[in-house]
Amino acid sequence: MDPLFGMGVLALVSVFAAIAGYTEDLESVVGSQSNPNSQVQLAPQMKYPHRLFNKAISGEPLSNAIIATIGSVVAFPLLLLDISPLAAIVGGAFVATLVHIVFATTSFLGRITSQSRFKQPIYMDVYKTHIPVIAAYAFLTVACVLIICFLMTKYLEIPIPAPILAFVFGIMIGSIGSAVGDTQYGAERLYQNLEFGSGVNAAYSGNIARKAESGTRSGIDNSWFSSKFGGPATGITCAAVVVMTSGLTLLFNPEWGETVGWVGVAAAVLFIIITVLINRYIEKTARKRFGPYRENEKTEAIK
Amino acid sequence: MIESLLFVFLITLGGILITLSVHLIPVGGAPAAMAQAPGVGTGTTQLAFGIGLTGLLVTISVYTLSDNTLLGIVFGGIASTVMIAIVMLISNVSYIYGIGIPLASGKAVKDPITKDRQDIYISKGTEGHGVPTAAFLSGIIGGFVGGIGGSLIYAVLYMALSSEINAPLAAVVSLPMILAISIYIINAVIASYNIGGTIEGFYDPKIKKVYKAVLVSAIVTFLCGVLSLIIILKSGGVV
User: What's this model's pTM, rounded to 2 decimal places?
Assistant: First the structure.
């Protein structure tokens, strides 16, 4: 394969990975899936009933992987019937979205009804307004994953069958969305009623912000907030991971000789060293700018 | 027979490496997503799984391009490391610029590598936040070890299947891949039980319990290895 052509396809793949990461994170924010869900679930128990959509189908990577795999299982056989790839991908993503809506519905109703003893009502308007947004984001995520699989299997000559590749990318994008994007939602947006610039004090667990910029806060308000930082951060991470991992074998193709492959390993090591240095730099600047929380007293490490 | 034993031994070694790697990657679970605990803000299994699959993907593409087994395994390890490095870096960016908190470890008064004070940078009511330098380096080592483990399992199963079978490449690739993914997640779950939610890396006191997980992992992966080889044998592979 021509490396220039390969890099072009990889650039396209990384764009779709960025969009998939962005939409995946926002989908999890609208439905408060993943780790911050613990706070949304805890709030009524601490006497803070809320109007957020509460679904935790499973961990983000797994729920994301299952819809991506369902999408690809529907889409890729359609390609054999001589249907245009775009139509097949849309069809696959549509079916996957329907499955996701079913999961989101059962998860939402099940979780809220289990909290009836804490006086948390089921707001049907919350359900009706959030489900289309969740469906739209899930559709975009699945469609992007399917496009990535299509490009990789067809043009990058990856020998993995598309459904397994979709599973891999579903897990990968889900775990990045869970690791990177959710912290801003969980630590900042859910606790905007606390002072900025500190972790959430464990004593305030469950005391989530329930008032919005105007009116009562909903999951859609939260996605607006996360679309400014958490979503793009997830997207950038997804794109960076795709470029820096799959790009290695394209730029330093082991087919041209083993030495080229080992040079690729060396290049990756160099990249890792650079990330360590950047991390050290931002760690130092943050400490210098923010300063310590308390004076130089002696404390014990938490065992 | 000796070859089969060697294969099972290598698969077991891969499983042990995965279990070790999960102990080294700084993960804070749900509390880290609320900046209540240090580490990457997601579950141990989930992050380890994502990292392992990234490595596996690269290993497979290297195998289609080159016959060098060692290169494929090392590439898998390095790809996993690249993924964890990017995830830790951008999650730190998110902690610092999105939430406005410095990185601080709760398990060490001073960072074991940079010797920076940690305790005074921990905000009230939390156990620390973010991935400080020592934890970052621990995560990088963990990513590499885990990536090597996953790729090693895949490489062994692939060799066992691909030596004589006349099947399409996609079929030869997918069966070892599914088995490797399964063994990977089993070991990630074993390690997660041992960790119990959060761990900061090599300097965390919880690392002392690692031998328990290694023992369990060795037994379980050995059984998985035997079963995988039987599946491979039934699918036409030569063991």
Answer: 0.94
Q: Is residue B206 part of a domain?
A: yes
Using an 8 Å Cβ cutoff, are A41 and A110 in contact? no
Q: How many domains are contained in chain B?
A: 1
Please state, in angstroms and rounded to a whole number, the distance separating the CA atoms of residues B229 and B239.
7
In a domain? residue B32: yes
Structure-token match 């080592």, residue found: B141
The separation between CA B79 and the C-alpha centre of its own chain, rounded to angstroms, equals 11
In this predicted structure, what is the pLDDT of residue B79? 95
Residues of chain A with pLDDT under 50: none
Choose, out of A14, A255, A269, A279, the residue to mutate when testing the contact with B (most B CBs < 10 Å).
Answer: A279
Residues of chain B found within 8 Å of residue A14, distances taken between Cβ atoms: none
- Does residue B207 lie in a domain region? yes
How near does any CA of chain A get to the CA of B191, in Å? 17
| Complex ipTM | 0.94
**Which of A159, A171, A276 faces B49 most closely, judged by CB atoms?**
A171
CA distances from A157 to A67, A246, B34 (A): 24, 12, 41
B212: containing domain? 2-99+130-234
pLDDT tens digits, A165-176 = 999 999 999 999
Answer whether residue B116 is part of any domain.
Answer: no
- What's the pLDDT tens digit per position in A185-196? 999 999 999 888
- The reply to whether A178 touches chain B by the CB within 8 Å rule is yes
CB contact under 8 A, A261 and B122: no
Contact state of B71 with A262 under an 8 Å Cβ cutoff:
yes
